[in-house]
């Protein structure tokens, strides 16, 4: 089961969070989402636990709790809907311009 965590203190690292969730069972993977430019935590992340019962217990016991002074929310992660198209931006070329050389 994939778990979504929000409200994480910015100083919390992946090793520390892995140990916390490890108290409930095996942690298959864990990722704290970071800002692309600064590399600093954005305050949320994902944990994957192979045993659903252990994951549900972690959610039940940790959701709404205090973690280093922050109230965290812990829930089962929802899959992103696939919109089927390219939602990204990017460079748009204006081919209607006159060119002068």
UniProtKB/TrEMBL annotation:
What terms describe the molecular function in GO for this protein? RNA binding
Q: Where does the chain cross the membrane? A: none
Spell out the Pfam families in the cross-references. Answer: RRM_1
For whether the record's keyword set contains Hydrolase, the answer is no
Q: Where are the annotated segments for Disordered? A: 74-101
Q: Which domain of life is it from?
A: Bacteria
Q: Key word RNA-binding present in the record?
A: yes
Q: Give the keywords, sorted.
A: RNA-binding
InterPro entries according to UniProt: Nucleotide-bd_a/b_plait_sf, RBD_domain_sf, RRM_dom, SLIRP/GR-RBP-like
Q: What is this protein called?
A: RNA recognition motif-containing protein
Q: Which organism is it from?
A: Pedobacter nutrimenti
């Amino acid at each position: 089961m994939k778990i979504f965590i929000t409200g994480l203190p910015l100083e919390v690292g992946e090793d520390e969070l892995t140990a916390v969730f490890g108290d409930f069972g095996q942690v298959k993977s864990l990722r704290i989402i970071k800002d692309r430019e600064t590399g600093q935590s954005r305050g949320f992340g994902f944990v994957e636990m192979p045993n659903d019962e252990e994951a549900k217990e972690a959610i039940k016991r940790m959701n709404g709790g205090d973690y280093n002074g922050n109230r965290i929310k812990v829930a089962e992660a929802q899959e992103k809907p696939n919109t089927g198209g390219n939602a990204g931006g990017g460079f748009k070329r204006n081919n209607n311009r006159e060119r002068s050389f």
